[in-house]
Write a structure and sequence with these properties.
Layout: H1 2-15, E1 22-26, E2 34-39, H2 50-56, E3 60-66, H3 80-89, E4 95-100, H4 102-113, E5 118-124, H5 141-153, H6 155-167, H7 173-183, H8 191-199, H9 205-208, E6 213-218, H10 226-235, E7 242-247, H11 254-257, H12 259-272
Parallel strand pairs: 2-3, 2-4, 4-5, 5-6, 6-7
Antiparallel strand pairs: 1-3
Helix pairs in contact: 1-3, 2-12, 5-6, 6-7
């Protein structure tokens, strides 16, 4: 029953809180109507959210995290179960979780495993199955394997190539690349996050989530194809309440490039849900 499930989830959190995350809590600058937890993508850290904060903080308290295994230079690197438990241990009792790219996959896992803690789910540039398996649009398996090998051999060079892909399609790619690279601290401890990207398959999990969902995709994303957005919409066609929203003219670096659109779509969605 639900009581047993809640107790089991809480016990799991208590047992696995040794993992310490880089955490920042920012109270709302206006009337607080919501708790938001923001989860960054692979190869980045919580600094990616700075452009979005001025749009969200007038009405929300914000929790920012550096995710071990996804944030460069973070250590120790946990198993995924340990990471999920540590995230909820470091976050408000109930919150809306917003995840970008790999952070979106992590947010989906949290919504599934800790439904009493995640009251709504929001993603940006999210693909439930990042690597194309022949039945779902994503990165070609051979390309992913080559990139994974490059990260192991020369993470600095691999990150620069990855950044170029993230900025592809942007109106001002060089400016975005400078912003992104200024935010980064180190290049190590990233292989675990790549394994999560490679192995997570949430195509059956996503429609089973009962919380309200909004999935924001970008028109010019070089890492998550437009076909993935269309596939997500089809996957969730019988789920409610769900919104799948396209951000036109934007690349994968949406938190840097499209902060106004993201904030507007998120706020409107939460207002519709009467949060």
């Amino acid at each position: 029953n639900r009581l047993t499930s809640c107790w089991s989830s809480w016990l799991h959190v208590v047992m696995m809180t040794e993992l310490q995350l880089g955490r920042e809590y920012l109270p709302a600058t206006g009337t607080s109507r919501q708790e938001l937890v923001l989860l960054h993508g692979w190869g980045c850290n919580r600094e990616i959210w700075r452009p979005l904060l001025t749009k969200l903080r007038p009405w929300a308290n914000i929790t920012l995290l550096d995710i071990p295994g996804a944030a460069p230079g973070s250590a120790p690197v946990p198993e995924l179960d340990e990471l999920l438990a540590a995230i909820v241990a470091h976050c408000p009792a109930q919150a809306v979780y917003l995840g970008w790219s790999l952070g979106g996959q992590i947010a989906v896992e949290l919504a599934h495993r800790f439904p009493e803690r995640v009251i709504a789910l929001a993603t940006i540039c999210y693909n439930p199955c990042f690597v194309d398996d022949g039945h779902w649009p994503g990165m070609a398996p051979g390309d992913f394997a080559v990139f994974e090998s490059a990260v192991i051999k020369n993470p600095g060079l691999a990150l620069r190539r990855f950044d170029s892909l993230q900025a592809q399609g942007a109106q001002r790619p060089r400016t975005l690349l400078r912003e992104l690279q200024t935010m980064r601290k180190g290049t190590g401890s990233l292989h675990a996050g790549l394994q999560w990207l490679r192995d997570l398959d949430q195509r059956q999990l996503l429609p089973a989530i009962s919380q309200p969902q909004i999935h924001m995709h970008t028109e010019l994303d070089a890492l998550v194809p437009v076909a993935a957005s269309e596939a997500v919409q089809e996957l969730l066609r019988t789920s409610e309440p769900v919104t799948v929203q396209a951000i036109s003219g934007a690349c994968h670096l949406a938190p840097l490039e499209s902060s106004v659109e993201i904030a507007d779509y998120l706020q409107a969605f939460l207002q519709d849900q009467q949060f």
